[in-house]
Amino acid sequence: MAKIYIEVIPSAGSAKTTNFVNKLAIIIDVLRATSTMVTALANGCKAIVPVHTPEEALEKRLLLPGTLLGGERQAQRLAGFDFGNSPFDYVPEKVGGKRVIMTTTNGTRAIMACREAAYICMASFLNLQSIVEAVQQKFSENSEMEGLVIICAGTNDRFDLPDTLCAGMLIDALGPECVLNDLGIAARMLYKSNENCLTETVLGTNHGQRLISLGFKEDIIHCTTSNILPIVPILIEDEIIWLTEEMVW
Question: What are the backbone dihedrals phi and psi of residue 81, each rounded to the nearest 5 degrees, phi first?
């Protein structure tokens, strides 16, 4: 496989100045949007529809009867929504066979910011190895791909260590032949120095401490568990779905 040129960007806001044309974009929001999306799909959710705002979510539900609403602002469930942003909200008996319209502070904004990319998928620690395999396959099949952009959703347009650690784990798994920007190099270094204590490190971050203060410590433990869900969530038109073997992506 040819070298993969990788650009890591630190936040959803940084995506505004990034060229995504003919590239594969990977969104990472460890705490908690992409982790929750992966969990929801694993529990039978039919599709996730990302939107910018709570108002847009409410309007879209009128067009999609029977669809559920999920989302948060500042880590708290939105009034009138069926779910917050905890992966434990999205249990099989509630999301099985259902679509969920989702809006979050950082993660869904990052997704919407890279719509010009040729391909878009969602990564977390939970499904990291499946994403690695999907990336390798895509670049092997398509010699015209110009690179990979990893969007760390960040926290309110600021650097976020949990997302950067996950980006570093992804880069490390893709191998030494990758050509990285400076943040990609830093992400790999951060991951390598914390690979044996990911949960403990994330628990101690600003984002982790805020979630703990709100009662979400178990979310962090779940979201920092590696490679337990063999799922590749991809954005097709306006929906995030589980990529299956029979699908053309």
Answer: -90, 150
CA angle 172, 174, 176 (to 5 degrees): 70
pLDDT digits (tens, 9 = 90+) for 98-128: 999 999 999 999 999 999 999 999 999 999 9
How distant, in Å, are the alpha carbons of 20, 93, 138, 169, 213 from that of 177? 21, 44, 16, 15, 41
Distances in Å between the Cα of 126 and the Cα atoms of 88, 213, 229 are 14, 23, 6
50 within domain boundaries = yes
Q: Identify whether 62 is part of a domain.
A: no
Could you tell me if 126 and 33 are in contact, meaning their C-beta atoms sit under 8 angstroms apart? no
Give pTM, 2 decimals: 0.97
Number of structural domains in the chain: 1
For residue 115, what are the domain limits?
5-54+108-242
Contact call for residues 175 and 184 (beta carbons, < 8 A) = no
The CATH number that applies at residue 24 is 3.90.1560.10
CA distance 54 to 77: 11
